Amino acid sequence: MDLDPRRLAVLAAIARRGTLAGAAAALHVTPSAVSQQLAQLEHSVGRPLVDRTGRRAVLTAAGRILADRAEAIARELGAAERELAALSGRAAGLVRVAAFATVIRHLLVPAMDRLAAEFPDVVCSITELEGATALRELRLGGIDLTITERDAVQRTLQHRQVSVVPLCDDPYRVVVPVGWPPVHALEDLADRPWVAGPPSSTTGQILDRVCRERGFVPRRAHACVDYPTVLALVAAGHGATIAPDLALRDMHRDEITVTALPVAGARSLDAHVTAARARVPAVEALLSCLQAVLPPSR
């Protein structure tokens, strides 16, 4: 019986994802490649490992046994990777990161430059993904690290088997179009249109909280999550917004007016990494480079 560890890893991915297509996406291969690897593993074992009769790929009893063993093998290989790196004193390998636009542009890109200079054997692969979707990918093993945002007044989200590394607080600013009258208090904008994310988004939650503290409900004229889009609408005169410092780096200050109005709280940025990957030297190297390029705390 030839139990190829690479084929066992494919079976483990099928178990986590529930479909061959999902496993293929996680492994960055085609569904036909997953199907071929599975067929070869089943031929080696001499019995079916996955029931394909339904829409989902359900593991047979033999499949569950092998998938559990595959997860144990992956943990052992991870431990071996850490021990070898400790022996050589050198971080190496691929780190898969999920983040959103402002973090990719203003934190990850500079961190990758530093990574290339200080840890040339570490490769960083970035996927633009955020929120619950990114955390799900992290727990399923599709990525090694994700960076999330939250209103700083909210508690850090805790997840089983996931370590949270606080990165920084990104201060918020009230931003209005250049042609608007001077704004002396947030209440001056109570009857004005706003551009912000939906109430379920971090930006939407902060806007609602700040306005509620001042006794009014903001009139959302446009609902957008992507900051370049939000700020383009503000620059065109279509509404005010609350935006973090990192996002404002993309704008020329003659395009918008960044007011001096105080905003209680900030956007907190956190790195999330599974406990199994937290001590991998390549992941630690990327985290150290990220922390080195963070904006100074205020």
The share of residues in extended strands comes to 15-25%
Could you say what the CATH architecture of the largest domain is? Answer: 3-Layer(aba) Sandwich
Q: CATH top level of the largest domain?
A: Alpha Beta
- The fourth-level CATH homologous superfamily of the largest domain is Periplasmic binding protein-like II
| Tally of domains | 3
Largest sheet: 7 strands, mixed
Kindly state the number of beta strands: 11
Return Rg in Å: 23 Å
Please state the overall shape, judged from the principal axes of the Cα atoms: elongated
Considering DSSP H and I runs of 4 or more, what fraction of the residues is helical? 40-55%
Structural class, please? alpha/beta
Order of helices and strands: HHHEEHEHEHEEEHEHEHEEHH
Task: Explain what this protein looks like in three dimensions.
This protein is 45% helix and 22% strand. α7 links the parallel β7 and β8. The chain has 298 residues and is α/β, with parallel strands linked by helices. The chain starts with a helix and ends in a 6-residue tail after the last helix. Strands 3, 4, 5, 6, 9, 10 and 11 form a seven-stranded mixed β-sheet that branches. A two-stranded antiparallel sheet has the order 1-2. It has a two-stranded parallel ribbon with strand order 7-8. α1 crosses α3, α2 crosses α3 and α5 packs across α11.
Characteristics of this structure?
298 residues, alpha/beta, Arc Repressor Mutant, subunit A, D-Maltodextrin-Binding Protein, domain 2, 3 domains, seven-stranded mixed β-sheet, two-stranded antiparallel sheet, 11 helices
